[in-house]
């Protein structure tokens, strides 16, 4: 549910815009606000699970997610439609943020050390597959039940999830940690300001005082938030894990890949639907090469990691293919001929599928065993933030290139889509360069000495 709902609405954006009278700005925001909320609240989910227990937190997150999904499906028309749907999507992201960190911890607890890396890689791979399947699943739902069904379908699935949780036999002890409001509020405020300024610069202009004010305020607030978290005796998330170089590099690459993925899925779907004027079933079917190739890359990722015993093989092979595929896909967009889109689509999908599961496994190997829960939360937070920043950057380009008439009617022109794909290609190119320069050349055999979790004055030095 969590991963599917990031992209399932991509196919629904055009019907939603036509039904509720949304502009291009609001269309993008429907996807953006969910990813941003998920990124901002993921550390809160981890903090809540420590305080109240894993299963209780997961149940709460599921209920919040299901209720918010139902509210999205019941969105009214008129002037209140935009604020209503964006608020419901933000709450939906909050529910998802309570679920994701708990799920990762439960999987880590369920497997022995020798199997844990492969299990987490399989989990990341399945999440990746559902992430990219969103538009295809959404197309089938909309054809038979209308656009509201992409949200309402979460109600029966959520009920089934709650039933399954009731039968689960896992440890659910609460560590008794404290809940703090200052750090979460600071994270939410700083990320919100930064992404808002980045997105709105497509409307206001890069040098507009409003853009500069939002970006500078967001950056300063984020810097103060990082300082607050580092100095706290009970940090919201263990940012010192980023001092472990292999882990930091792998998180950064995942950040860039997620940014590119969300861009090509959302804008690739809109291009097929609006610029090529395909029907909903045809749009969903046209995305099958992307889904199939990304699934293939995801399934090959763990095999390549085990076969060559180096993270560089799946990462460099995948990112090279993804970058070349994204460039080829971008070059084929002006033709508006579907056969010309397929090679780039397949190559980009295969390439984006290869790195993520292997990187997820290596991240957990790169950190001490007692820090893996925090490492997973930080990875999820930055991965979702990558999607939000990527989509905001591409959205700013689209809003700047598109005509005022197209923006007002919720239409993304072919030229504007090309601009969004250039952003995705650049993100993948940066990830490839980072992987080539900074990834370790061999598989790690031991995690580094754990850093102290005391951050206040008098804390012992870190190794």
Mean pLDDT: 87
Relative helix content: over 70%
Task: Please provide the ordered H/E string of secondary-structure elements.
Answer: HHHHHHHHHHHHHHHHHHH
Class based on secondary structure composition and strand pairing:
mainly alpha
Q: How does the overall form come out from the CA principal axes?
A: globular
CATH architecture of the largest domain, please?
Answer: Up-down Bundle
Low-confidence stretches: 444-463
What is the CATH topology assignment of the largest domain? Growth Hormone, Chain: A
Report the total helices: 19
What is the rounded distance between the termini? Answer: 40 Å
User: What is the makeup of the main sheet?
Assistant: none
The H-level CATH homologous superfamily of the largest domain, spelled out, is MFS general substrate transporter like domains
Just give the CATH class of the largest domain: Mainly Alpha
Number of domains as seen in the coordinates: 2
| Radius of gyration, whole Å | 21 Å
Strand content: under 5%
Topology, number of strands: 0
List strands and helices in order, with pairings:
Layout: H1 4-7, H2 13-20, H3 24-52, H4 54-73, H5 81-110, H6 113-145, H7 149-152, H8 154-166, H9 182-204, H10 209-231, H11 245-275, H12 280-286, H13 288-308, H14 312-332, H15 338-353, H16 355-366, H17 372-401, H18 404-408, H19 414-438
Helix pairs in contact: 2-3, 3-4, 3-5, 3-9, 3-17, 4-5, 4-8, 5-6, 5-17, 6-12, 6-13, 6-16, 9-10, 9-17, 11-16, 11-17, 11-19, 13-14, 13-15, 13-16, 14-15, 14-16, 14-19, 17-19
């Amino acid at each position: 549910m969590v991963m599917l709902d990031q992209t399932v609405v991509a196919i629904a954006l055009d019907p939603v815009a036509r039904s509720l009278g949304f502009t291009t700005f609001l269309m993008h925001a429907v996807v953006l606000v969910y990813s941003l909320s998920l990124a901002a609240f993921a550390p809160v989910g981890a903090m809540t699970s420590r305080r109240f227990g894993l299963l209780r937190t997961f149940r709460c997150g599921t209920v919040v997610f299901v209720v918010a999904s139902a509210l999205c499906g019941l969105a009214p028309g008129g002037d209140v439609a935009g604020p209503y749907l964006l608020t419901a999507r933000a709450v939906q992201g909050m529910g998802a943020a309570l679920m994701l960190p708990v799920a990762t911890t439960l999987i880590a607890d369920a497997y022995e050390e020798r199997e844990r890396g492969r299990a987490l890689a399989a989990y990341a791979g399945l999440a990746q597959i559902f992430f990219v399947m969103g538009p295809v699943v959404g197309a089938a739902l909309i054809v038979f039940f209308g656009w509201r069904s992409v949200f309402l379908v979460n109600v029966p699935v959520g009920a089934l999830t709650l039933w399954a949780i009731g039968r689960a036999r896992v440890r659910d002890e609460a560590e008794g940690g404290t809940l703090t409001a200052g750090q979460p509020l600071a994270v939410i405020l700083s990320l919100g300001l930064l992404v808002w300024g980045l997105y709105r610069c497509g409307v206001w202009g890069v040098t507009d005082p409003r853009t500069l004010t939002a970006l500078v305020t967001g950056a300063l607030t984020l810097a103060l938030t990082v300082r607050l978290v580092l100095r706290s005796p009970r940090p919201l998330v263990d940012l010192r894990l980023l001092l472990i170089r292999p882990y930091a590099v792998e998180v950064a690459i995942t950040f860039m890949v997620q940014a590119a993925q969300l861009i090509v899925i959302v804008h690739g779907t809109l291009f097929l639907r609006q610029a090529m004027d395909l029907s909903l079933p045809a749009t969903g079917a046209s995305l099958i090469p992307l889904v199939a190739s990304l699934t293939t890359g995801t399934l090959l990722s763990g095999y390549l990691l085990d076969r060559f015993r180096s993270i560089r093989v799946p990462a460099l092979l995948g990112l090279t293919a993804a970058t070349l595929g994204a460039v080829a896909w971008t070059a084929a967009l002006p033709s508006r001929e579907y056969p010309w889109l397929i090679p780039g689509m397949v190559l980009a999908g295969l390439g984006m599928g290869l790195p993520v599961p292997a990187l997820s496994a290596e991240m957990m190997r790169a950190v001490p065993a007692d820090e893996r829960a925090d490492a997973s939360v930080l990875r999820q937070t930055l991965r979702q933030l990558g999607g939000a920043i990527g989509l905001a950057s591409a959205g700013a380009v689209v809003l700047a290139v598109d005509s005022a008439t197209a923006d007002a009617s919720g239409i993304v022109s072919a030229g504007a889509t090309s601009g969004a794909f250039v952003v995705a290609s650049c993100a993948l190119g940066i990830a490839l360069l980072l992987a080539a320069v900074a990834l370790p050349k061999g598989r790690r055999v031991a995690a580094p000495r754990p850093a102290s979790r005391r951050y206040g004055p008098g804390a012992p030095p870190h190794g």
